[in-house]
């Protein structure tokens, strides 16, 4: 199924870097920064100081950034609540004084808190399966995950290379939009990053996406029915419905859409991400990277096991073991290969529901016989297609840290169920803070998802203050 797609001209003139306004920048501790240690919240890196600075930090310095510090996180980005850190947990500043500590989300919890407290104007985080968007939802700030390959990852300590994305957090959308688009950051290719899109590909992608958001009355917003899960808090479901009604009152068309592979997305993610992590963390052996244990003069497996046993935390060890098993000869076909197939299905589901073609691929004809029998058709060409998707960011409000510690690892992984699909497909997504009434102290986040490289219009829609539902 292929519909007519909108072509566009290139956007207008860019802001000169010399005219960029200065701003304070906080940097997640897995992003190399000159003059500051890069520890990834892990004991194995100690006081490691990177010999070079990450490209994204250098680019933002050129755009007026002053680095005010590094932020705490889950060790190597592995977590959803920023509790897996050698420095201790990150605490949500929205909790009342004297109350029990509450999760700030993870793994970029420290970056979200720096913005929420006003210590930084913009903070850098990394988003592998929701690690920018979840903290944004829990702390009441904006969290933006760009299209995969847009922002350079050179100098970012990798967790899962095919999923890791540098993201930005701020108190509202405008500073993020300005630094990414008004200064031309989205156009810059980094030859040091093999996942950074080439200049030619960036231009082709930009031509495929409209440069500006049309009137709301011309927008079609999709509501993914699979995201309405049983575990979704009723008040978050009500906020989702209220925001959809607000958009509809402004003339937007709201339609249900189906993303059937969503049900398998989380399982696929927790096979693929640990598998890549087990490979990436193999270099931390006490020789090339990492601290040595008491038996540091030992050789071979003893040296490696002591270095990793002393330096890695429990969650990192767990994911290394999970990843090593899924890459083993006896499990590769049943787990890793199947997860890669599910990832393709997730991407195909998104491509089916968006009006715009994915500019990385040739337009594909979707067979209607592959779709569910109860899928509603727009016309003889197939189901309705949408400009954006609207969903909750997290299924619950931020939990107490004591409750997080009692949960099993599988229960904690469930927190990523609504953010992982966009990460698997490499799509841009942004979480905006929402609060219905004063009966809930904590805000929640609503997530907007767009087709690949349609980031500019995504941020423009997120910047529309849908009062009283967007409370930025």
From TrEMBL:
Cellular component, GO, one term: glutamyl-tRNA(Gln) amidotransferase complex
Domain of life: Eukaryota
Catalyzed chemical reaction(s): L-glutamyl-tRNA(Gln) + L-glutamine + ATP + H2O = L-glutaminyl-tRNA(Gln) + L-glutamate + ADP + phosphate + H(+)
Keyword terms of this UniProt record: ATP-binding, Ligase, Mitochondrion, Nucleotide-binding, Protein biosynthesis
GO molecular function, a single term: ATP binding
Annotated EC: 6.3.5.7
BP term (GO), one: glutaminyl-tRNAGln biosynthesis via transamidation
Localization (cell): Mitochondrion
Enzyme class (EC, first level): ligase
Active site residues of this protein: 28, 107, 131
InterPro entries the UniProt entry points to: Amidase, Amidase_CS, Amidase_dom, AS_sf, GatA
Pfam family, one: Amidase
Domain Amidase per the UniProt entry, residue ranges: 26-459
Function text: Allows the formation of correctly charged Gln-tRNA(Gln) through the transamidation of misacylated Glu-tRNA(Gln) in the mitochondria. The reaction takes place in the presence of glutamine and ATP through an activated gamma-phospho-Glu-tRNA(Gln).
Subunit structure: Subunit of the heterotrimeric GatCAB amidotransferase (AdT) complex, composed of A, B and C subunits.
Family: Belongs to the amidase family. GatA subfamily.
Name used for this protein in its record: Glutamyl-tRNA(Gln) amidotransferase subunit A, mitochondrial
Organism lineage string: Eukaryota, Fungi, Dikarya, Ascomycota, Pezizomycotina
